[in-house]
Amino acid sequence: MTDIDLSDLAADRDGSRKLRGYLARPAGTGPWPAVVMIHEIFGLDDVMRRHADHLAGLGYLTLAVDLFSAGGTTRCLVATMTAMIRGHGRAFADIGAARDYLGGSRDCTGKIGVVGFCMGGGFALLSASDGYDAAAVNYGQLPRDLDETLAGACPIVGSYGGRDPQLRGAASRLDAALNKAGVTHDVKEYPAAGHAFLNDTKAGPRALRPLLRVAGIGPEPESAKDAWDRIELFFATHLN
Questions:
Q1: Which fold has domain 2-239?
Q2: Closest CA to 162 of 132, 133, 179, 187
C-alpha cells in the first residue's frame, strides 16, 4: 500500500498539476485485474483508504485517485462537483490518469473496473461508458441525462440506502434505465441503510458528525456486508 504521484499522467490529459493516488496491491504476485476507486465528498481519508485495501484483499490492484490533490477539499470541492454535474472537466481527466496508470502497469491483466462512493459513485456512473469492464456505483447521484449516460455502459452493480433522502427512488430509476439500455446490472436498495452506509466508521469533519448522524448518514454494517458481497461477486464475474 503506497501513495503515488500521478501528476505527469494528469498533465497529459490537462488534469490537475498535482495529482496523487493511493495504490493498494493484493497479496502475492500479479498480474491482477485492476480498479480505479473514486472517493466520497470528504476526500481520500482513512475510511476511503480502507475501502481500497478491502478491494485489494479481494484480489484487485486498486488505485484510489485523490480528486482534491490540487488544493484540498475546501478549494477543490466546488470545481469537482461542477465537473460531475456538467459531465466533463478536470476531475474526469484525473480519473482517466488513474486508469492510464493501471493500464500501463505490468501488474494489471488489462481488465479494469471503476468503483465510487457518494460523489465518487456519481463519477463511477458517468464513467461507465468510458471503456471499463465493470462499475460499482455506491449511492451515486443520477445524472439528468441518465439514458444518454448509460448508452454503451459496462456492466453496473449499484447499491443505495432506502433511508437516504438525497437519493429517494434513485435505485428504482437506475434499475429501470439499465433495463431499457440493455446493460447487465445488479441494483439494490437497502431499507435499513442511509447515505454512506458502506463506511466502516463515521467520516467527515468532527463538527459535522452530529448533524450527519441525525440525517442518517453513516455505517450500517449488515447492509454493507451484503453490498460488498454483491460487488465481490459482480467483479469476479466481469473482471476475472
A1: Rossmann fold (3.40.50)
A2: 187
